[in-house]
Amino acid sequence: AQSVTQPDIHITVSEGASLELRCNYSYGATPYLFWYVQSPGQGLQLLLKYFSGDTLVQGIKGFEAEFKRSQSSFNLRKPSVHWSDAAEYFCAVLFSGGYNKLIFGAGTRLAVHP
Amino acid sequence: DGGITQSPKYLFRKEGQNVTLSCEQNLNHDAMYWYRQDPGQGLRLIYYSQIVNDFQKGDIAEGYSVSREKKESFPLTVTSAQKNPTAFYLCASRRGPEAFFGQGTRLTVV
Fold it and tell me: CA angle, A21 as apex, A113 and A109 as ends, to 5°?
């Protein structure tokens, strides 16, 4: 079955520290991959996306993500976290073919300590 | 401005009543989606539609219904059969691989 897994529900980092949020998916083919961020009570903002080509993609706000086909992963990274990065982060996968389901992981809530 | 509009932002209903959440887009997108968001559970897919007059159940369709009579509109009805309807609901539209989201409707059933 198609699924998206974010194994870390909560992550706390210190401001200035590096960050990596994990995302794995279950699917036979290469899907379209996304990371979104959500501040409390708000909609979703697209951070970055992977469709094809270079497996390291750059996004907004200094985020990047790397697609690893062998691990079915699409981990989000940031070299130095700012207090304003505290939010909830969602990995999403568009499973193409047929009816094109867009599936989200359960999310990772990021807290940033000063 | 092009975008997706969900209305209202906050909605209150009494238990046992049906309620319809609005989602309108002027992006000329074919595909539209409805998600439910609960704390710690991410976004769960309720229904999705690839074209007008066609829609598919998502992972948690029970207690919900939709229609897609126009390309621009994809209303979601939360019926009295939905056992726990209080949640944040997000609508999205998609053209190609990329989806765009509305600002959501927070439904509270009392």
Answer: 50
